[in-house]
């Protein structure tokens, strides 16, 4: 089930959008300020974002700029601003679509479905993910360091795939555990730490001196962008 983040300060509009998309089979998460929306986008996984421009504390254009630093999530702008230059500006900032208020709820649901379908087709075309000396072949489920294959366990492969699919994102231990193991995280760090340690050792054994998985103290793990 696709998850949709709705950042809209008008509670009635947010409720109507949430209700319509829930009935269409999506899981929805409401946010009512720009700050709340950015925080949720950073801490949770979503497949699409509906974003208003006129938001309290942090406007929609600022939200979009900040989100595009760490995520390529599809974004549909929903705004009362119908000036052409505003639409162009938001599309240049990274929005995928723009709907002007007042809108038809059925049209919003159709736009969401169409965009998600297009994004899914694009993802299906991606057969490999690469980062510096690392390559992941998603079709063959094989992992390479400097073109030499490195054998990974199923869980190690899933962790590496998660990192390579989200190269700018920091993953907490809780998020890694709940995503990879599919169970509630109860605070035991050993499982995640052991798998990260094993991954690091296997990558180094693939004839590289680089530390590709970086620990961000107090936050979690991510790919090390300082690797040359």
Automatic annotation (TrEMBL):
* One Pfam entry name: Trans_reg_C
Please report the stretch or stretches of sequence annotated as the Response regulatory domain. 3-116
Q: Which residues carry this modification: 4-aspartylphosphate?
A: 52
Q: Which GO terms describe its molecular function?
A: phosphorelay response regulator activity; transcription cis-regulatory region binding
Gene Ontology CC annotation, any one: protein-DNA complex
Which BP terms from GO are recorded? regulation of DNA-templated transcription
Q: Which residue ranges run through the membrane?
A: none
- Transcription regulation listed as a keyword: yes
Record domain OmpR/PhoB-type: where: 126-225
Q: Which Gene3D superfamilies does the entry mention?
A: 3.40.50.2300, 6.10.250.690, Winged helix-like DNA-binding domain superfamily/Winged helix DNA-binding domain (1.10.10.10)
Q: Which UniProt keywords apply?
A: DNA-binding, Phosphoprotein, Transcription, Transcription regulation, Two-component regulatory system
- Give start and end residues of each DNA-binding region: 126-225
PANTHER family, A to Z: REGULATOR OF RPOS, RESPONSE REGULATOR SAER
Reported function: May play the central regulatory role in sporulation. It may be an element of the effector pathway responsible for the activation of sporulation genes in response to nutritional stress. Spo0A may act in concert with spo0H (a sigma factor) to control the expression of some genes that are critical to the sporulation process.
UniProt protein name: Stage 0 sporulation protein A homolog
Native species of this protein?
Anaerocolumna jejuensis DSM 15929
């Amino acid at each position: 089930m696709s998850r949709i983040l709705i950042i809209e300060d008008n509670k009635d509009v947010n409720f109507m959008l949430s209700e319509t998309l829930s009935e269409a089979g999506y899981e929805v998460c409401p946010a009512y300020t720009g700050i709340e929306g950015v925080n949720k986008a950073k801490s949770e996984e979503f497949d699409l974002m509906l974003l208003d421009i006129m938001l309290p504390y942090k406007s929609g254009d600022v939200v979009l700029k900040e989100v595009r630093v760490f995520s390529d999530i599809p974004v549909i702008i929903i705004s009362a601003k119908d000036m052409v230059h505003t639409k162009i500006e938001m599309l240049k900032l990274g929005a995928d679509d723009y709907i002007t208020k007042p809108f038809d709820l059925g049209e919003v649901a159709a736009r969401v479905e169409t965009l998600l379908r297009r994004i899914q087709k694009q993802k299906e075309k991606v057969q490999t993910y690469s980062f510096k000396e690392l390559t992941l072949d998603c079709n063959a489920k094989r992992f390479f360091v400097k073109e030499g294959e490195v054998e990974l366990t199923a869980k190690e492969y899933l962790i590496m795939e998660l990192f390579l699919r989200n190269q700018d994102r920091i993953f907490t231990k809780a998020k890694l555990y709940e995503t990879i193991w599919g169970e509630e995280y109860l605070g035991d760090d050993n499982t995640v730490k052991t798998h990260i340690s094993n991954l690091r050792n296997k990558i180094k054994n693939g004839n590289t001196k680089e530390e590709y998985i970086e620990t961000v103290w107090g936050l979690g793990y991510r790919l090390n962008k300082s690797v040359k």
